[in-house]
Design goal:
The chain is mainly α. The chain has one domain. It is globular. It has four helices and no strands. The longest helix has 24 residues, at 32-55.
Length: 117
């Protein structure tokens, strides 16, 4: 039996937000360098945190919910994907809000070079 509960949650996250890229043309996925700079520091922190907690037996993953494929530090592949997919989904959501409600500010508008004024 395929144990894909965690993967199903990631697919649901993709389906719930990645459509914004196509229909609202928010162009988040075209800004690869920006995504890498945004996601990497936090992902590395949480991977280190997971690795530490797993090594101390303070954290584990339900084998019935994961595929059983592991990356470095015995962290399931789904967890690595989580640290990429969920932040991208969040970025897409805020960029969709900016696109639909350009008069709503979130505080970093000066850094956008006039894209969303």
């Amino acid at each position: 039996m395929l144990h894909a509960g965690y993967l199903a949650m990631l697919v649901f996250t993709i389906l719930g937000s990645f459509w914004l890229e196509i229909f609202l043309k928010i162009k988040v996925l075209r800004q690869v360098n920006r995504l890498i700079l945004t996601i990497t520091p936090t992902a590395l922190f949480f991977i280190a945190w997971d690795a530490y907690a797993i090594s101390r037996k303070q954290w584990s993953f339900d084998p019935a919910q994961i595929l059983g494929l592991y990356g470095p530090f015995h962290i399931p592949i789904e967890e690595y994907l989580f640290f990429i997919i969920v932040p991208i989904a969040a970025i897409m959501t805020i960029e969709a809000v900016r696109k639909r409600r350009p008069h709503w500010t979130i505080g970093d508008e000066k850094n956008l070079g006039g894209d969303h004024q």
